[in-house]
Amino acid sequence: MNDSERGKPTSPTAPADLYRHGLQLLLDKDIDGWVALCDDHAVFEFPFAPDGYPKRLEGRAAIAAYLQDYPDHVDLQSFPYLEIHRTDAPDTLVVEMRAVGRIVATGAPCEISYIAVVTVVNGRITHYRDYWNPLLLPASMSAAKSSPTPTS
Prior knowledge:
There is one protein chain. The protein is an alpha+beta fold. The chain is 25% helix and 38% strand. It has a six-stranded mixed sheet with strand order 2-1-6-5-4-3. Mean pLDDT is 85; it is low at 1-9 and 142-152.
């Protein structure tokens, strides 16, 4: 790697391309790779989050902690519907999508619809507002997220 390549993102930098790349990372169960797409100071908001779940996360470390066990609860298998809308703000997208997979604890199929407003600056996600349906939350994830975190 030469000096001009050092420090540059290794993933796509155009907002729509980066978003698609992120979806593939989720299908690959590469949570660390997905979190690496986020800016150090990224803000995630979940306006419909149920009680016991955060409505806002600030910073890459908080995002990583929140997502670390997602594949233990939901096995995402495809995104059969994806529509990316560009906005007047060139760094911001509105995404409509549907995820299909299974609940790991039971093997039951699941289908989750999302609308997200995503801002990407300099090849990194800086703001992500996720309008997901909390009624589809797996019971295993509810139990895991509401359990006290062990201290060491």
